[in-house]
Write a structure and sequence with these properties.
alpha/beta, D-Maltodextrin-Binding Protein, domain 2, 2 domains, ten-stranded mixed beta sheet, 15 helices, 50% helix, binds fe (iii) ion
């Protein structure tokens, strides 16, 4: 009997112990779970604090997306992209006004960036990082936009018909020697407007007008097509010389279209005005929108894109020169040689845009 009681009490103790143990383990699980939940929600809060940045861009390169992913990895800031054509994005920003979701605008040509500024779509950014990375002539005077990549607007010539020693300046293209030989796109295009604006800034209005008139007189045909079409017309023998942006030669050399590669191999790139005023350059750049809701994140992304880490890849995606002078251009661009650039602040391309358009109309550059 005594022994039975003993066994009974042992069993009771054992059962109690098991119950207590089970209770303990389930409550320690609860503690662990709730700690995990707390950690998760902390992470969510931190993520939402790091937040997003919304970017309107006219670029569409896979390498851009890799770069933006790197930015997200480093900062935790998510980048949302809205891709579109340059003028349409500016139009959209203007239409959306205060309600816009866009924090940043990336688009080509200082003239166009200036247009966005004049429409009061941008705001100034004071960032030592940007001031250090982007040279003063490649950014807006009021810091409303910053150049990120640089292109030259150069003379492209038929290698089999033109000796580069015959070429010298933009101005020399108006010489009778080139009558019926010059191919260039329409004056409605911003690249030509910015080129003429640069000549107004450097040579004055009268000289710039003489130049535009002289080019019209030497045109091989009425302006038509885009920059690439001018190179194609050179190779087809319609003229000997085209005025076009450097990166199109790079794009054609690397094109999936065999015809474009063939064309690009038959033309040479000449940087005009090396003895004097320098070759006309322009930028693709970024501006903080006036109604940016994620201003801090947006400035972080601007700074990232100007950094050594991002610049090489960002410029190479479009066969352009990095705006940050501490980065070397790609091998292809280096093979064209170093060149002297026009010594003007690119803001002036925007400031003289209206004048340039007026001159084009006056001289009949279609
Ligand atoms: Fe272009």
């Amino acid at each position: 009997m005594k022994r039975k009681v003993h066994i009974f009490s042992l069993s009771v103790i054992l059962i109690f112990s098991l119950l207590i143990f089970a209770g303990c383990s389930s409550s320690s699980k609860e503690v662990a779970n709730s700690e995990k939940e707390a950690a998760n929600s902390k992470e969510e809060v931190e993520n939402s604090q790091k937040g997003v940045v919304n970017l309107y861009t006219d670029r569409h390169y896979d390498t851009d997306e890799q770069l933006l992913n790197l930015f997200t990895e480093e900062t935790g800031i998510k980048v949302n992209l809205v891709k579109g054509k340059s003028d349409e994005l500016i139009e959209r920003l203007s239409r959306e006004g205060k309600d816009t979701q866009a924090d940043l605008l990336i688009t080509a040509d200082a003239g166009r960036l200036h247009r966005a500024k004049e429409k009061e779509l941008l705001q100034p950014v004071k960032s030592e990082v940007l001031f250090n990375n982007i040279p003063e002539n490649l950014r807006d005077k009021d810091n409303e936009w910053f150049g990120l990549t640089v292109r030259g607007r150069v003379i492209v010539y038929a290698k089999d018909r033109v000796d580069p020693s015959e070429l010298s300046t933009y101005e020399y293209l108006t010489n009778a020697k080139w009558k019926g030989k010059i191919l260039v796109r329409s004056s409605s295009n911003i690249y030509n407007q910015s080129l003429l604006a640069s000549l107004i800034a450097i040579n004055g209005e009268e000289e710039a007008k003489k130049w535009a008139k002289g080019i019209v007189e030497n045109m091989a045909r009425e302006p038509k097509g885009n920059d690439r079409d001018q190179a194609k017309a050179v190779v087809a023998g319609e003229g000997d010389i085209a005025i076009m942006n450097t990166y199109y030669v790079g794009k054609m050399l690397n094109s999936s279209d065999a015809e474009e590669v063939k064309v690009a191999k038959q033309v040479g790139v000449f940087f005009p005005n090396q003895e004097g005023t320098g070759t006309h350059i322009n930028v693709s750049g970024v501006g903080l929108t006036k109604y940016a809701k994620n201003k801090e994140n947006a400035i972080k992304l601007m700074e990232f894109l100007s950094s050594e880490k991002a610049q090489k890849q960002f410029a190479e995606a479009n066969y352009e020169y990095p705006a940050n002078p501490s980065i070397e251009p790609s091998e292809l661009l280096k093979s064209w040689g170093e060149f002297k650039t026009q010594n003007i602040n690119l803001s002036q391309l925007g400031e003289y845009n209206t004048k340039a358009v007026q001159i084009f109309n006056e001289v009949g550059w279609k």
